[in-house]
Amino acid sequence: MHLKEQGFSILPSVVSAETLEQLRHSLFQGSAPGERCLLDDPLVHDTSLVLKQQLCDSGFLDATAVAIQAITFNKTVTTNWKVNWHQDLMFPFANRVSAQAFDLPTIKEGVHYARPPEQVLNQLLGVRLHLDDCDGTNGPLRVSPGTHRAGILRTAEIPGITAIHGEIACLAAEGDLLLMRPLCLHASSQATEPKNRRVLHFVYFCGGPITESWHRSI
Fold first, then answer.
1. How confident is the model at residue 31 (pLDDT cuts 50, 70, 90)?
2. What is the mean pLDDT of residues 150-165?
3. Element at 4 (helix H, strand E)
4. Taking the domains of the chain in order of start, what are their residue ranges?
5. Is residue 133 exposed (0-12), middle (13-18) or buried (19+ Cβ within 10 Å)?
6. Coil, strand or helix at 74
7. How far apart are CA 197 and CA 140, in angstroms?
8. Which of 6, 18, 201, 212 could bridge 71 with an S-S bond, Cβ 3.0-4.6 Å?
9. Looking only at Cα atoms, what is the longest distance across the chain?
10. Does domain 3-124+132-195 match CATH 2.60.120.620?
11. What gap in Å lies between CA 122 and CA 149, rounded to an integer?
């Protein structure tokens, strides 16, 4: 799938099998469905740079890109959740935002979050590194292709947009990357055969200076 037109793309990563195993072992010890703000973890930090280089070499990012977020997700028998159609709009900042067009300030686990303006959202790229195979039985991400070009949507608009654009299930093998624009509508169902579906999700910013400071910038 073409990232520019469809809003998402799937490709193999250059992350080694050894690093994938280290990430599984170090990031998924508890039973929580996920964890935020992981860029300070040395292994996550280094993996973000490896992926940045790969995505720069393949033309998906430019040399000015920085990682601003890293999150883990997992679906198991005990953490088997459903996510309705949505866009990713809230991102972590160093302080409470006050600049014009930065909206909805809140705090999650001691970190400031807010919705950046649409121009900034369009310069973000989500990168999901799959640490396990993800098939149709363990709640894969579903995307509605092309919806990233519809701008920031109101909740009431979403059913009509997805009805027009349809949906695609993003199946992936261990080590694959799912690239996705945050404004691309996406969802996931509960797994019908729950098993580990471990994902390390990065967000990269490809724009110039902005009026607020990211929580982390690598």
1. low
2. 97
3. helix 3-6
4. 3-124+132-195
5. middle
6. coil
7. 8
8. 201
9. 46
10. yes
11. 9
Q: For 177-218, how does the pLDDT look when each residue is reduced to its tens digit (9 = 90+)?
A: 999 999 999 999 888 887 888 999 999 999 889 999 999 999
Token reading at 136 = 């149709």
**CA-to-CA separations, 94 to 37, 133, 189, in angstroms, rounded:** 12, 34, 33
> What is the C-alpha to C-alpha distance for residues 185 and 5, in angstroms, rounded to an integer?
14
DSSP for 38-72, please give it. Answer: -TTSHHHHHHHHHHHHHHHHTTSS-TT-EEEEEEE
Show Cβ contacts of residue 46 under 8 Å, excluding neighbours closer than 6 positions. none
d(CA 107, CA 95): 10
CA 213 → CA 91, 102, 135, 178, distances in Å? 11, 11, 38, 26
Find, among 83, 89, 71, the residue nearest to 184 by Cα. 89
Task: Quote the Cα angle for 115-65-127, to 5°.
Answer: 70
The single-letter code of the amino acid at 64 is T
- Region 9-22: mean pLDDT is 97
The amino acid that residue 129 corresponds to is: L
The helix (run of H) or strand (run of E) holding residue 118 is helix 118-121
